[in-house]
Design brief:
This protein has twelve helices and no strands.
Length: about 280
Amino acid sequence: MKFLSRFYIAIIFLLLYAPILVVILFSFNESGSLSSFTGFSTYWYSDLFRNDEALTALKNSLILAISSSLLATVLGTFAAFSISRAKNKYYKKIMESVSNIPMMNPDIVTGVSMMLLFVGVAQLLSAGSYLGFWTMLIAHTTFNLPYVILSVLPKFRQMDKSLTEAALDLGCTPVQTFFRVELPYISPGIVSGLMMSFTLSLDDFVISHFVSSPDFKTLPLYIYTQTAHEVKFSMYALCTLLIFAILVLLIAVNVAGSMGEHRARKKAGNQMRGGN
C-alpha cells in the first residue's frame, strides 16, 4: 500500500513538472531541435538578450508588476486593517466576501468586464486612446487586492489586542500605534502579499490581453504573439528565466513567513516567561 501511494505521488509530480523540465532542458540545446539533444549551449540565452522587442516586453512587465504590486499592497493592507477593526460582524463578513470576488471570478470575465468599463469611461470622456499602461495598472491592482487582503488579514487576527491597548495607554496616537506596533507584527503577511501580487502580475495573460494596447506589450503577450509563428528556442530560454525568477520569489515568501512565525513564537515565549 505504501508503494502504491508513493508511486501515485511520483506520477502526479511527473505530470506536473515534466513539461517544465523539458522547457529548461531544451533551452540549453545547441542544435535548436526538439528531436534530439546535441549538446549544452547558452546560445539561445544570448540570442534572447539581443532581442530588443523581448527586452522591452520584459521591462514593461517589470514596471507593471512592481507598480501594481506596491499599489495593491498599500491598498490591501489598509483594507485588511479596516475589516479587522469593524465592529459589526455581518458587515465584516460581507466585506470579506466582496473582497474575494475578483479572486474567485474567472479571469476572462474580469478581463472582459474591465475592458467594457474602460471603453465606457473613454466614451464618456471622449478619449481617443484609452487602453495602455494605466488601464493595465488598474486591472492588475484590482485582481491583486484580494490576495494581499487574504495574506494580511489573518496577521491582524493573530495579533494580541493588548499590545495595541498598551501602546495607546502609554501615550501613542492611533497612527503611531499602527506604525510602531501593528505594522512590524503584520510585516510577514505584507511581504507575502507583495510577492504574490508581483508574481501574479508578472505572468498574467488573460486579463492583460483585454486591457492592453499595441503600444504597451507585456512579456506574456509577447510570448503569445511568438507562438503564433514558429516558436524560437529563445522563448524556451525566456520561460526558463521566468521559472527560476518565480521559484526565487516563492522561496523568499516561504522564508519571510517562517521568520515571521519564529519571531512571533519567540515573542510569545518571552511574554509567558515574563508573566511567570
